[in-house]
Specification:
The complex is a heterotrimer.
Chain A (H helix, E strand, L loop, with lengths): L1 E2 L4 H30 L2 E5 L2 E8 L5 H6 L2 H33 L6 H9 L6 H12 L4 H8 L11 H26 L2 H9 L4 H29 L3 H7 L6 H10 L4 H28 L1 H4 L1
Helix pairs in contact in A: 1-12, 3-7, 3-9, 5-10, 7-9, 7-10, 8-9, 9-12, 11-12
Chain B lengths: L3 E11 L5 E11 L3 E5 L6 H9 L6 E6 L2 E2 L10 E4 L11 H10 L5 H14 L15 H13 L5 E5 L7 H18 L2 E6 L2 H7 L2 E6 L2 E6 L1 H6 L4 H6 L4 E11 L2 E6 L3 E6 L7 E6 L5 E3 L9 E12 L3 E8 L2 E8 L14 E6 L5 E3 L2
Parallel strand pairs in B: 3-8, 3-9, 6-7, 7-8
Antiparallel strand pairs in B: 1-2, 1-4, 4-5, 9-10, 11-12, 11-14, 12-13, 14-20, 15-19, 16-17, 16-19, 17-18
Helix pairs in contact in B: 2-3, 2-4, 3-4
Chain C lengths: L17 H24 L15 H8 L1 H34 E2 L3 H13 L2 H14 L2 H5 L9 H23 L4 H9 L4 H30 L2 H6 L7 H10 L4 H30 L2
The chains are: A mainly alpha, B alpha+beta, C mainly alpha.
């Protein structure tokens, strides 16, 4: 690695465009959002303005965000995401194992089958889910053939969780696959050879040695689930909104931007807490990673 | 031979795609033997070892361990333990936890684990490193952990897969002695897989040489070296000159043959020869001399030295005799100028036909 | 686990365990059945969940639906342009981080990775306010196509290029700097070395990163929803509006086309990338 001072021109040429872009289209907008979260709508001539704000004059938005209405939504985001992540892990782990332990010539095809849906538009996949599970959808029609239903399968929390698993499963498969694939099989063989059953081999050897991949997978799934907007909107309906839907609502419907900004920052803080937990866990298992 | 501890009977292993890794192999291994499976890479020796441990299953055949057919018993239920080529020392456990692992998972009481682990670590001289993690240890130390971890289970048979291949030359020699010593102290049957003939010859009490999935010969080291059964074994074990010979006549045990390199001579053999045979003779059994050697029955020929390589204790000479190359080892037994042989010299090469061997396969 | 092994099967042949095969099949059904049904019903004569007969009518309607057509061409234009710029910016950022030591490097690395971890909706509204208050949103509204899409393109580059940087940087880690030295030793200038040695080495990662940027852009709904004006609707935003009004087989038809386009682009890119990968 070179010191930047020895190649100032090259360094500045390479570093400036990306930095400028980040500054203009990320840092400044975020800073503005931060300021807005402490602001209130300006009152001009006794009327509440729709476009002007009094900046940095209140904590009211955070107080309101911490109120029951929004805490419920935040809490729902936290636990539905947790369940969806756990389900993804429970499904993806055995599948990733199967791919890694399949005959080498089948591996790329099996992996491709599991992650191909990732390349299909998120909205299209959610819509596909919606159209087969709606009351007149193909699933209910099938129930109808045997004299059952129709059932209301959407507009509940289960539908949201199912949708999240559907959409984010590939994100869990990939890091698990790349970790298990790198795992030296002779560790598992040694464990079996030393008298451990398959179950003990899994818990005492396979699981701890693949923990870094598990943690990465959990983060890759949990974070987008937390801020989800589409899945809860289309499959869950208004009664199953997450915090993401509330934020969208403040901006596009209720027109209370400062409150939306405060909610956004709360969501970001939760996300960062999740990332810090991951960093902490990763540090503890670095010995394993080597 | 006493009751075998392991009896491999007509075992074959075919992989999907039609590759036969092990082809109808039968071997009996006695209690307390140090047995080696020797062969070039891809000869099926590792597959055979893995079938003994249960990490692979045969396509057909029986693997009888301690009187019980275990061909399809899972590895965790077999009285065998393995030292892996990569050692497979668990990176997330300390040395002590590694060695105690096999006892812990089979429900041995904690107090007993402690004493047995301590004993095992003492045996491989690692007691002072018990609390270390594997990534703070050298390759040689990790191998000792792997050994202790397998031996602490007191298996009927210890399996070693290329145990020395990842060590450097000096350490390898030490470890060879160490393994022989361990085998004698613990009195367990050792089966070692290796592609290194020196390793097999110096450690094993018996060796099975394998070629293309089949057993070429099972014998003691000296028998293998002095009486190889076929060209493959002769060529694989040590260096050898293989002379193509046409058989002129055979009277009882005496064969008269003619070779390009050494002309016409008679040689004793138990085998019945067809019209051609191969005469095998080790380089150290060929003699070089400036003047024509005298002695009854010596086979001799004139040869031109093509190349001399100096190895300190010996020199390896390659000489052209009648259009084919002969390899000759010369002892450098004086301090003045090594062998004294020089490129381009014309010398006599001779050997006693009793030191040569007739091979028909 | 006292069960006997089967002939020719090892204890680690998990891929041949019946329960894992069954689970695999079920998950594939779960992943593909909704998409398959979406495609099948795009040929249905009505919008019910029952098959009432085959027709191409939905495709004809979607094709003639100016709004869908417009949204789709917007999406593809935005994706193409933002892919080019994201790949360049991402490649440069990766080179900076790989090659140089500089003050506050760790902080800078974290900063550049932020768009990857920040929830989309937060970045979406932040950008939307920025565009509104800087006047960009109003200014571009009347610009001629495709310049009226420029704020969406800016936004897409901002969230895509950090992904490209991550992909390219992980490849650069494997670069042997002696190759660079060898090139300079043979008389090449710094710039010639860059063009002839480093760029070819980065190529597979640039292709992979570009593909990722393309998919992210085409896929993005949340950020686009906030930065698009009435005249700059993209395909996902349009579809969202239609979905909110209920199931419509035109959506199925248009989606089927988009699925085919993205999947074939993905598969071709993977094929192109495969030999380059093994070449190193």
């Amino acid at each position: 690695m070179d010191d930047w001072k020895d190649f100032k021109r090259v360094f500045l040429t390479l570093a400036t465009p990306g930095s400028l872009w980040m500054l203009l289209f990320f840092a400044i907008p975020m800073a503005f959002l931060f300021v807005l979260s402490f602001s209130s709508k300006a009152v001009i001539d006794g009327e509440i303005s729709t476009t002007a704000y009094d900046y940095m004059n209140t904590f009211q938005n955070y107080v309101e965000s911490a109120g029951h209405n929004y805490l419920v939504l935040l809490w729902r985001a936290i636990w539905t995401s947790a369940i969806a992540t756990a389900l993804c892990l429970a499904l993806a782990y055995p599948l990733a194992m199967a791919v890694c332990f399949a005959a080498p010539r089948w591996r790329p095809l099996l992996l491709l089958l599991l992650i191909l849906p990732f390349w299909i538009n998120l909205l299209i996949r959610t819509y596909a889910m919606y159209s087969i599970f709606r009351t007149t959808g193909v699933v209910n029609q099938a129930f109808g053939l045997v004299g059952l239903g129709p059932y209301e399968m959407l507009n509940n929390t289960y539908a949201v969780i199912m949708g999240l698993v559907y959409v984010y499963l590939p994100f869990m498969v990939l890091p698990l696959y790349s970790t298990i694939e790198k795992l030296d099989r002779s560790f598992l063989e040694a464990s079996l050879d030393l008298g451990a059953t398959q179950a003990k081999t899994f818990w005492l050897v396979t699981w701890p040695l693949t923990l870094p991949g598990v943690i990465t997978g959990i983060i890759l799934v949990y974070i987008p689930c937390l801020g989800t907007f589409l899945t809860s909107d289309i499959l869950g309906g208004p009664n199953n909104w997450n915090i993401g839907n509330a934020i969208q609502n403040q901006f596009l419907e209720s027109n209370n931007w400062p409150l939306g900004a405060a909610l956004s920052f709360i969501l970001m803080y939760v996300t960062f807490i999740a990332l810090m937990v991951r960093a902490f866990l990763a540090k503890r298992s670095t010995g394993v990673d080597a | 031979m006493s009751e075998p501890i392991i009896s491999i009977r007509n075992v074959s292993k075919r992989f999907a795609g039609g590759v036969t890794a092990v082809d109808n192999v039968s071997i009996d291994i006695a209690q307390n033997e140090f047995f080696a499976l020797l062969g070039p890479s891809g000869c099926g020796k590792t597959t055979l070892l893995r079938m003994i441990s249960g990490l692979e299953t045969p396509t057909e055949g029986q693997i009888i361990i301690g009187g019980q057919d275990m061909a399809f018993t899972p590895p965790n239920l077999r009285p065998t333990n393995m030292v892996f080529q990569s050692y497979a020392v668990f990176p997330h456990m300390t040395v002590e936890q590694n060695v105690g692992y096999g006892l812990k998972v089979t429900g041995v009481p904690a107090a007993e684990i402690k004493t047995r682990v301590a004993e095992a670590l003492e045996m491989v001289k690692l007691a002072h490193l018990a609390a270390r993690k594997p990534d703070q240890m050298s390759g040689g130390q990790r191998q000792r952990v792997a050994l202790a971890r397998a031996l602490v289970k007191r298996p009927k048979v210890l399996l070693l897969d290329e145990p020395l291949s990842a060590l450097d030359a000096k350490l390898r020699d030490d470890m060879r002695m160490e393994l022989t010593r361990l085998q004698q102290t613990v009195g367990i049957t050792f089966i070692i897989v290796t592609h290194d003939q020196d390793e097999a010859l110096s450690m094993a009490s018996r060796i099975a040489v394998m070629d293309k999935g089949a057993v070429a010969q099972i014998a003691t080291p000296s028998e293998l070296y002095e009486h190889p059964r076929n060209k493959f074994v002769a060529d694989f074990i040590g260096k050898v000159n293989l002379l193509d010979a046409s058989v002129l006549s055979q009277k009882g045990k005496t064969v008269t043959c003619e070779t390009k390199a050494a002309g016409k001579f008679a040689i004793e053999t138990d085998k019945t020869c067809g019209s051609t045979a191969t005469i095998a003779i080790r380089p150290e059994k060929l003699k070089l001399s400036a003047s024509e050697p005298k002695g009854a029955g010596l086979v001799k020929t004139k040869a031109t030295v093509r190349d001399v390589a100096y190895y300190g204790d010996t020199s390896h000479v390659v000489a052209d005799a009648g259009g084919s190359d002969l390899e000759i080892n010369v002892q450098n037994d004086s301090r003045t100028g090594g062998s004294g042989v020089e490129r381009g010299q014309k010398l006599w090469v001779s050997f006693n036909p009793e030191d040569a061997l007739v091979l028909t396969e | 686990m006292s069960a006997q092994l089967k002939p020719g099967q090892g204890p680690l042949d998990y891929a041949r365990r019946p329960w894992i095969i069954a689970l695999f099949a079920l998950v594939l059904l779960f992943l593909y059945a909704p998409i398959a049904s979406l495609i099948v019903f795009s040929f249905n004569v009505d919008k019910s969940g029952v098959w009432h007969g085959f027709t191409f009518m939905n495709y004809v309607k979607a094709w003639n639906n100016e709004q869908i057509f417009y949204a789709l061409s917007n999406s593809i234009t935005i994706a193409l342009i933002s892919t080019v710029f994201s790949t360049i910016l991402g490649g440069m950022t990766a080179l900076t981080l790989w090659r140089f030591r500089f003050p506050f490097k760790t902080a800078y690395e974290g900063f550049v990775a932020l768009p990857i971890v920040v929830p989309e909706i937060c970045m979406g509204i932040a950008l939307s306010m920025f565009f509104n208050y800087s006047g960009l949103m109003a200014a571009v509204r009347d610009w001629v196509w495709p310049f009226n899409l420029i704020n969406i393109i800016f936004a897409h580059i901002a969230f895509s290029f950090p992904f490209v940087a991550v992909v390219v940087r992980s490849r650069l880690v494997g670069f042997n700097r002696q190759l660079e030295e060898a090139s300079k030793d043979l008389g090449a200038t710094e710039f010639q070395t860059f063009i002839n040695v480093l760029i070819p080495f980065m190529m597979p990662a640039l292709v992979a990163g570009g593909l990722l940027a393309f998919t992210l852009s085409l896929d993005d709904f949340v950020i686009t929803l906030f930065s698009s004006g009435p005249g700059s609707v993209t395909f996902p935003v349009k579809i969202y509006g239609m979905v909110k009004r209920g199931v419509d087989m035109q959506i199925n038809a248009a989606s089927t086309v988009l699925i085919l386009v993205t999947l074939s682009a993905t598969l071709i890119a993977m094929k192109l990338q495969a030999p380059a990968k093994s070449g190193h």
